[in-house]
C-alpha cells in the first residue's frame, strides 16, 4: 500500500486538517500511514480511494490507539493558525520562500518609510555638495544589473543599498543650486507629502463617479490658481456665465497638442457647414497654424501629430512675435488657399525667455477666427507677482492658457495647468462615452476624461493643494522674487566682465551670455564646464550666435552659490582663451584682450604686442584675464578717478621698504591706480603713512594655516614682484579703504556684506 502511495503525483496536496471528524479513525489511520510511507502530498480524491481500500482490513487495538492520539494532535494543529504551515514538511518545501503579500507588511513599511524619508531629507539637504552631472557613459548601468529579474524576492536592505551604489552615480541632480540648465523642475516638502498620499489612494479620476474628490478638488484648486495668476474669469469653473475651466494635464507639450486638436476640430466643423460634401481629411490638409521661430519644439511636434501645417514666424529685435508678422503671414496663406486655424503665443521662450506681444496678436486672432493658445510653461509662475503681469496684456483674447507649476512653483512633476475659454469645444473633440464609463450623474458632473487624450488620470491636485496651502500666496511670490534677484546678481557679474556679453535682455530667472569672439570659444567653455561637472549649463542659438543659458533653478540658491558658479565659468573661459591663443593666435581675440585689458596689461609690465599674436605667453595672459572682479554699487566717476590718481602717484615714501628705488615706487603707484580703479573702488584714499616693518620679498609663505597659501600665491601671480616692497601695514590700509560691499543691491533678499578687496590675501 505504501508503495502505491509513492506512485501518486508529488505536486498534489492533501491537508489532514480538512478531515476534522474524530470518529473517522480508520480514514485517519489510512492517511497517516500514507504520510509515513511516502512523504509526498496527495489529493483528497486519492485519500478517499485509499480509505475505502483500507477499510476492508483489520487494525489492531494498539494501532487504533496510536492513530487516535495522532489524529487528535493533528486536529489541534488545525485550531492553531500559526501552526498550520507545519503540517506537512513536503508542503512547506513546495511553497515559495515568501508570498507577494508577505514581502512588506504595514509595520515594516512604517519602518522602511521612515528610513526613506530620512534618506530624502539628507539627500535634498546636502544636494549642493554633489557633482551636478554624472561621470558615466551610455550603458553604464547594464554591467551592474543581472540579465534577468530575480526569481525570489530580494531583501529590502539590498534594494535600499543599491540606491547609492547604482542609481545615484547616474543621476543629474536637478534640485542642486548649481543646476542651471533647462528651466527649473522644483519640488518641496508639501508636494512630496501630497504625492505620497495620492499614490497610496491611487484612484483613477477619469469620471466624477470614479472618484468625486479627485474631480472636485481639481476644479476648485484650478479656480484658485487662475485667480492667483490674474487670469480672466472666463477660465473659471465656478463663475456665473463661464463656459470654461481648468484641468491638470501631464505636460505643456500635451496641453498644446490638445489645444491644437480642439482648434482643428472646431474649424473643420465650421468648414463643413459651408462645404457639406467635403471630406474631413481634405479640409484638414488646408489648415495652417502659426508660432514664433522661438517657440518650443513641442509646438512643432503638435503640428506633426495633428497633421496641421505649422509656420514659424520671424521675431523682432527683442525676440518677440508681433502682430505685423502674423497679419502678413495670414494674408499670404489665404491667398494660397490655406485656412489659418491656430496661433501659439509664447510667454517666456525656451531660448532667451522672450515674450510674444499678446496685445497685438489677440485682436488679429479674434478678427480672423483663429484659436489663440498661450504657452507660459516657465513664466506662468511669475504671474503670481503683480509686477510681472504686464506680459499678460491681451490675455482676454486667449482661447486656452497653459503653464507648469512643476517648473518654478515647487510642485514636482508632473503637474501642468491648462485652462480653456469654452469647454464644449474641448469636449466635442475628445468625447468617447462607452456604456461602462457612464454613471448616474453623467451630463451633470464634470468628467475630465473628455478634457484630455488619455482615459485614466492621477490625483495630481492633492500636491498642488498642499503646496498652495502650506506656502500661501505671499511666500510663493517671495520665492519668485528671490529667483529673479539671483538672476539679476548673475547678470551684473557678467556685465562687469569685459570678456563676456549678454546678447538678449534678461527676463525673470534666465540670463543668456557668451564669450566675445567666435562661437567656438563659447562652445569650448561649455565643454570644459561639462567635463568638470560642478555645474550644469546648456547652449542655445540666437541670430547665429551660440549662447549659454544660465537659469536660477533652486529655491535655495544664494549669492554665494551664484558667485561660486560664476568663478567656475570665468576659470573655464580663462583656460579656453589661453589655449586658443596659444594653438591658433587670433587677431580677433588678441584685439579683444588689448582693448579690454590693455591698462591692466600695461600696469603688469606686459606689452600689447605680447597679447596680440606674436610672442604670446599664456601664463601672462592668465594674469590679465583672471584679474579679480567684483561688482560694486556704481562705477567710479571721472573726477573721482583723477583724485585717486593724484593721491596714489606717488605713494608716501614711508609706505615702502628702505631698499625700494624710486623707479619701483613710481611703478607701484601707477599699478595700484590702474588696478584699483578697474575694481571701481569708491572710497576715498586717506593717509598711507606707515611705520611698521617691511614685508620681505624673500619670506616664504606661511604653512601654519593662518593664511591660505593657494589664495596668496594666486594673488602674487597677478601683481608685479615689486609689490613686496610695500610694508605689511600698507596692505592693511589699502584693504581698509578699498573693501566695500561686493553686491550692488545690499537691501535685496539674501544680500550679504562681504569684503572684496583683492589685496586681502596679502596680509
TrEMBL record:
Taxonomic superkingdom: Eukaryota
InterPro entries: Aromatic_deC, PyrdxlP-dep_de-COase, PyrdxlP-dep_Trfase, PyrdxlP-dep_Trfase_major, PyrdxlP-dep_Trfase_small, Pyridoxal-P_BS
GN (gene name): HDC
Protein name (Swiss-Prot/TrEMBL): Histidine decarboxylase
Subunit (UniProt): Homodimer.
UniProt-listed Enzyme Commission number(s): 4.1.1.22
Region called Disordered, residue ranges: 85-109
Lyase as UniProt keyword: yes
Keyword terms: Catecholamine biosynthesis, Decarboxylase, Lyase, Pyridoxal phosphate
Compositional bias (Basic and acidic residues): 90-109
Pfam families: Pyridoxal_deC
Claim: Lyase is one of the keywords in the record: yes
Needed cofactors: pyridoxal 5'-phosphate
Family statement: Belongs to the group II decarboxylase family.
Lineage summary: Eukaryota, Metazoa, Chordata, Craniata, Vertebrata
Amino acid at each position: 500500500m505504501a508503495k502505491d502511495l509513492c506512485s501518486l503525483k508529488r505536486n498534489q496536496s492533501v491537508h489532514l486538517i480538512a478531515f476534522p471528524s474524530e470518529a473517522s479513525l480508520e480514514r485517519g489511520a489510512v492517511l497517516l500511514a500514507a504520510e509515513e510511507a511516502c512523504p509526498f502530498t496527495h489529493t483528497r480524491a486519492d485519500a478517499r480511494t485509499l480509505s475505502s481500500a483500507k477499510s476492508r482490513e483489520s487494525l489492531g487495538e494498539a494501532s487504533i490507539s496510536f492513530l487516535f492520539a495522532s489524529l487528535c494532535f493533528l486536529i489541534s494543529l488545525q485550531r492553531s493558525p500559526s501552526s498550520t504551515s507545519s503540517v506537512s514538511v513536503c508542503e512547506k518545501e513546495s511553497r515559495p520562500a515568501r508570498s507577494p503579500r508577505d514581502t512588506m507588511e504595514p509595520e515594516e513599511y512604517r519602518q522602511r518609510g521612515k528610513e526613506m524619508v530620512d534618506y530624502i531629507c539628507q539627500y535634498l539637504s546636502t544636494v549642493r555638495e554633489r557633482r551636478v552631472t554624472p561621470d558615466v557613459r551610455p550603458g553604464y548601468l547594464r554591467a551592474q544589473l543581472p540579465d534577468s529579474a530575480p526569481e525570489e524576492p530580494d531583501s529590502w536592505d539590498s534594494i535600499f543599498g543599491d540606491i547609492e551604489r547604482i542609481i545615484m552615480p547616474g543621476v543629474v541632480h536637478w534640485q542642486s543650486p548649481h543646476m542651471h540648465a533647462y528651466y527649473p523642475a522644483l519640488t518641496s516638502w508639501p508636494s512630496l507629502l501630497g504625492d505620497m498620499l495620492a499614490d497610496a489612494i491611487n484612484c483613477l479620476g477619469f469620471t466624477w463617479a470614479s472618484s468625486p474628490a479627485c474631480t472636485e478638488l481639481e476644479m476648485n484648486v484650478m479656480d484658485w490658481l487662475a485667480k492667483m495668476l490674474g487670469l480672466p474669469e472666463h477660465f473659471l469653473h465656478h463663475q456665473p456665465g463661464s463656459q470654461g475651466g481648468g484641468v491638470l494635464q501631464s505636460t505643456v507639450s500635451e496641453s498644446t497638442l490638445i489645444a491644437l486638436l480642439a482648434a482643428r476640430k472646431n474649424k473643420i466643423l465650421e468648414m463643413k457647414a459651408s462645404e457639406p460634401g467635403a471630406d474631413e481629411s481634405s479640409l484638414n490638409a488646408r489648415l495652417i497654424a502659426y508660432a514664433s521661430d522661438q517657440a518650443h519644439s513641442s509646438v512643432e511636434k503638435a503640428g506633426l501629430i495633428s497633421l496641421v501645417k505649422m509656420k514659424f514666424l520671424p521675431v523682432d529685435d527683442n525676440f518677440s512675435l508681433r502682430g505685423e508678422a502674423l497679419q502678413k503671414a495670414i494674408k499670404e496663406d489665404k491667398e494660397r488657399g490655406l485656412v489659418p486655424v491656430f496661433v501659439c503665443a509664447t510667454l517666456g521662450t525656451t531660448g532667451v525667455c522672450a515674450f510674444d506681444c499678446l496685445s497685438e496678436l489677440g485682436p488679429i486672432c479674434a478678427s480672423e477666427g483663429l484659436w489663440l493658445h498661450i504657452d507660459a510653461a516657465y513664466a506662468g509662475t511669475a504671474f503670481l507677482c503683480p509686477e510681472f503681469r504686464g506680459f499678460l496684456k491681451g490675455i482676454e483674447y486667449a482661447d486656452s492658457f497653459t503653464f507648469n507649476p512643476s517648473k518654478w512653483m515647487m510642485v514636482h512633476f508632473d503637474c501642468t495647468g491648462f485652462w480653456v475659454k469654452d469647454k464644449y469645444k474641448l469636449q466635442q473633440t475628445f468625447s468617447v462615452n462607452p456604456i461602462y464609463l457612464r454613471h448616474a450623474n453623467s451630463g451633470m458632473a464634470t468628467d475630465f476624461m473628455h478634457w484630455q487624450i488619455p482615459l485614466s488620470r492621477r490625483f495630481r491636485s492633492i500636491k498642488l493643494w498642499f503646496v498652495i496651502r502650506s506656502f500661501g500666496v505671499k511666500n510663493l511670490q517671495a520665492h519668485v522674487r528671490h529667483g529673479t534677484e539671483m538672476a539679476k546678481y548673475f547678470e551684473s557679474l557678467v556685465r562687469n566682465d569685459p570678456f563676456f556679453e549678454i546678447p538678449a535682455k534678461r527676463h525673470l530667472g534666465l540670463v543668456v551670455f557668451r564669450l566675445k569672439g567666435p562661437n567656438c570659444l563659447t562652445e569650448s567653455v561649455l565643454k570644459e564646464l561639462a567635463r568638470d561637472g560642478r555645474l550644469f549649463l546648456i547652449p542655445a542659438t540666437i541670430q547665429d550666435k551660440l549662447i549659454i543659458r544660465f537659469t536660477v533653478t533652486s529655491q535655495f540658491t544664494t549669492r554665494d552659490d551664484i558667485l561660486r558658479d560664476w568663478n567656475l565659468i570665468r576659470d573655464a573661459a580663462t583656460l579656453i582663451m589661453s589655449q586658443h591663443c596659444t594653438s591658433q593666435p587670433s587677431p580677433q581675440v588678441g584685439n579683444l584682450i588689448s582693448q579690454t585689458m590693455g591698462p591692466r596689461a600695461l600696469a603688469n609690465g606686459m606689452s600689447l604686442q605680447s597679447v596680440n599674436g606674436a610672442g604670446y605667453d599664456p601664463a601672462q595672459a592668465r594674469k590679465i584675464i583672471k584679474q579679480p572682479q567684483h561688482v560694486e554699487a556704481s562705477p567710479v566717476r571721472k573726477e573721482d578717478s583723477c583724485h585717486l590718481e593724484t593721491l596714489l602717484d606717488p605713494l608716501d615714501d614711508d609706505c615702502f621698504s628702505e631698499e625700494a628705488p624710486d623707479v619701483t615706487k613710481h611703478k607701484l603707484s601707477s599699478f595700484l591706480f590702474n588696478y584699483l580703479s578697474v575694481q571701481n573702488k569708491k572710497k576715498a584714499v586717506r593717509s598711507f603713512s606707515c611705520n611698521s616693518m617691511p614685508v620681505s620679498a624673500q619670506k616664504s609663505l606661511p604653512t601654519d594655516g593662518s593664511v591660505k597659501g593657494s589664495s596668496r600665491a594666486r594673488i602674487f601671480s597677478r601683481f608685479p614682484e615689486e609689490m613686496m616692497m610695500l610694508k605689511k601695514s600698507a596692505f592693511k590700509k589699502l584693504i581698509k579703504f578699498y573693501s566695500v560691499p561686493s553686491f550692488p543691491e545690499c537691501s535685496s533678499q539674501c544680500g550679504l556684506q562681504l569684503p572684496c578687496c583683492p589685496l586681502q590675501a596679502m596680509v
